[in-house]
């Protein structure tokens, strides 16, 4: 498995537009785009900071994983995404090593990425996303 960098840092927010007042206006980071990922019940905004992006995630339904996260822990740091060159190979390698995964198959992620989550139990309390995307 080849990790090529930190792709983005995911932050769970209650209201995307309200959070953009801070990230966009106070910090002056430009929003690359806002996208709704229906199958995950989230709306995301990507804000590039150098080579890494901040991903803001807002729930669009009560059953959204982001809604459940905010209910339990409040707004805040949700996940770290590592970029991989070959997500299918990375998933196979981690499975072979017995690493607990949330996604045993790559799925669609915002920004036309292919992603898979590693279980926080395997990553010592951090929700880790593997992300393959061409930039
Ligand atoms: Zn992400």
CATH architecture classification: Roll
The whole-angstrom Rg is 15 Å
CATH superfamily: 2,3-Dihydroxybiphenyl 1,2-Dioxygenase, domain 1
Average pLDDT taken over every residue? 95
* Sequence stretches where pLDDT stays below 50 over 5 or more residues: none
- Give every kind of bound small molecule, once each: zinc ion
Q: What does the largest sheet look like?
A: 8 strands, mixed
Strand content: 35-45%
Helical stretch count? 3
CATH class: Alpha Beta
Q: What overall geometry do the principal axes of the alpha carbons give?
A: globular
Briefly note the CATH topology name.
2,3-Dihydroxybiphenyl 1,2-Dioxygenase, domain 1
List the helices and strands and how they pair.
Elements: E1 3-13, H1 16-26, E2 33-37, E3 42-49, E4 52-59, H2 65-73, E5 76-84, H3 87-96, E6 107-109, E7 113-118, E8 128-132
Parallel strand pairs: 1-4, 5-8
Antiparallel strand pairs: 1-5, 2-3, 3-4, 6-7, 7-8
């Amino acid at each position: 498995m080849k990790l090529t960098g930190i792709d983005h840092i995911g932050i769970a927010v209650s209201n995307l537009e309200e959070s953009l007042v801070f990230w966009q206006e106070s910090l002056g980071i430009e929003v690359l785009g806002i996208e709704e990922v229906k199958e995950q019940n989230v709306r995301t905004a990507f804000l590039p900071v150098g080579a890494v992006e901040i991903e803001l995630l807002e729930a669009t339904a009560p059953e959204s994983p982001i809604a459940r996260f905010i209910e339990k822990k409040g707004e805040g740091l949700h996940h770290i995404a590592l970029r991989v060159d070959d997500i299918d190979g990375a998933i196979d390698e981690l499975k072979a090593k017995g690493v607990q995964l949330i996604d045993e198959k790559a799925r669609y992620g915002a920004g036309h990425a292919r992603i898979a989550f590693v279980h926080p139990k395997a990553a010592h309390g951090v929700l880790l996303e593997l992300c393959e995307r061409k930039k």
